[in-house]
Design brief:
20% of the residues lie in helices and 22% in strands. The protein is of the alpha+beta class and 330 residues long. The longest helix is centred in the first third of the chain and has 19 residues.
Length: 330
Amino acid sequence: MEGEAAYGFIVNVDAQGSGLLSDTEKPEMRRRLYDVTGTAFEQAGIRPPRLYQEDRGDGILGVLAPDVPPVRVVGEWVENLHQNLRETNRDLRKPLRLRVGLHIGRVTADAFGRSGRAVDLACRLCDCGTAKAILRAAADAPLVVAASDRVHEDFVLPGGRWVDPDHYRRHDVDLKEGRTTAWFMVPGRSEPPEPYTERHPEPTADGPGGPPKQSGPPEQSGPRTDHPPQPPAAVGSAGTAGTAGDAPTAGTAGDVATAGAPGDAATAGTADDAATAATADDAPTAGSAAAGDDVATGDRVVQTVHQHGNGRIVVAGNVDSIDLSDGGGR
């Protein structure tokens, strides 16, 4: 009765790739669609008024009366539809390929057709991306069946004539109403091919982790200096006063010693090559000195650098300040 919900077995059929057909090709596609599905219902002994059909453009919505055994649809009707498609596609340049969604539930009838959440689910399963991907992957197959979890549990698992549960494969599909479980089967195959989905993208050349990191030289140990390396002392120049880090170097005749200070080094006088005492980055450590130096541990050492008449600079110990006066005003 109109307006009252009743249980029915829902069959939704949709043509794959119908959007690619021209206006002149669509009428022939629709004729073949009604022919193969209608003949399959006749062969399974399912006829009006036990069968209601509603046109969906490039598909057909069918609702079966409660007294029609669902296993007859899952078994005989699906197999007959498969064979009818093989026959009609034999000489076609563009074969007719169909997706079928199966569900059972409450259906409400009115003057405009049939409605209900069960109808929505059957249509969603038929049109889901997994069903389309499986049929694309099965290039030589004309049909894929998507059964709801309830249909699979109640009418596929028990088996029956032309019903083989081992030929179905489970996939969780994302629909507008949320994620749900569906079971897919391609007639003529022992199992459907794996669909390509966004959750299983093609592997890249670098693998899932991306390209390998470039290996560089090992990190240097010890204190880091940002100063350019100093040229080696010339022959005849004074020895180096050793400290922790980089040792200050006493230059040759005519060189000017540079006293270390925080930040930039303060340079006394001018010279061709500057001999650098410890800077803020490479500070001398209290208690460290070259052999033979007398340095008081923990005390600040102040030392005077004397320049003799022959131009040679003599340095001993750690340098905190420098006096370059030689009494002659130089």
